[in-house]
Amino acid sequence: MEISLENNMYLELVKNAQSVNDLEQVRVKLLGKKGEISNLLRSLGRMEAKERQIKSPQYNNLKQSLEEAIKEKKEILLNKEIEGRMDAEWLDISQDPREMNSGLIHPVSRVTEEIISIFSDLGFSVAEGPQIESDWYNFDSLNIPPDHPARQEFDTFYIDPGDESIRENVSPNVLRTHTSPVQVRFMEKHGAPCKIIAPGRVYRSDYDLTHTPMFHQIEGLAIGEDISMSNLKWVLVEFCKAFFELDSIDLRFRASHFPFTEPSAEVDIRCSWVENSLVVGKGDDWMEILGSGMVHPNVLEAAKVDSKKFQGFAFGMGIDRLAMLKYGMPDLRSFFDNDIRWLKHYGFAAEKSSNLYDKLSG
Ligand code: DAH
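Predict the joint structure of the above. Result:
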């Protein structure tokens, strides 16, 4: 066999190896103990001295150049393999690990869940109503007739009924200004007794540090044959203790007026300002957190519930406001700005349950 170093099939084998593994097989095939080159070298011993003189340097050169070629090729293949792995296993180590979270829970959703879980524990179920509401449910049924001054206080968004002729004959729908109409809708459908909460979006034409045109309320309603103001007080104290995670809490019931309750009370919670942030539970200040009272007989009758047989309490509170109080968020407007930095700062990890859930389920 004539072997030329520039153009031999052995070098071709090395060149064509596709992986480090391939190359190792070629090496064993050529230079291994029983490899072809090793066999050639062994055959030198069986040659005539003259022939050996010619072939020996040829074979040894071949062996050497193959060893070099294999070494070179191995380095190329190793680099290629590392590059391949780097591409496949790419990781941006400059990225904050928190950015890898798949998503966070908005504080409003989180607080709504917290409130629902507390009231569920107290035996309340969840009811819902439409956000576009007739003005009968939003006002009349709640003892707020058309000429009642309370209608003005609500900064209502009216839905344009469209055509002029329709506009004259039909009273317009509104974006509900509160969750209270759910009381009437629920009782109308399911009657009494009942114990419900109704969380959801409400709308008013208002915009400043603590008001946004859309915000969230939660309504509470408990109707039975002998439900009283003291039941209302107990439920609200228990709720506030669980929500603010405090063993005892000071609430102040202040006489007030709502058309849909009689008597009515606004409820304040004891708090104090410490370095510009509000601490709930201690101090000498009071913060209003909700409106409440005994459901007005006119509201029960509007919902076709016998007001001589049944009575009960209702309350309404702002979910966003409770979130601001509990988690120290100063500006309500930023809740709805969709600023990813705010959401990352105040959002809750989806996989972590709150202490509250642990406490309630424990
Ligand atoms: N609907 C009232 C509001 O939006 C809040 C409210 C007050 C609801 C007293 C009630 C209640 O159920 O009894 O301002």
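The chain is about 40% helix and 20% strand.
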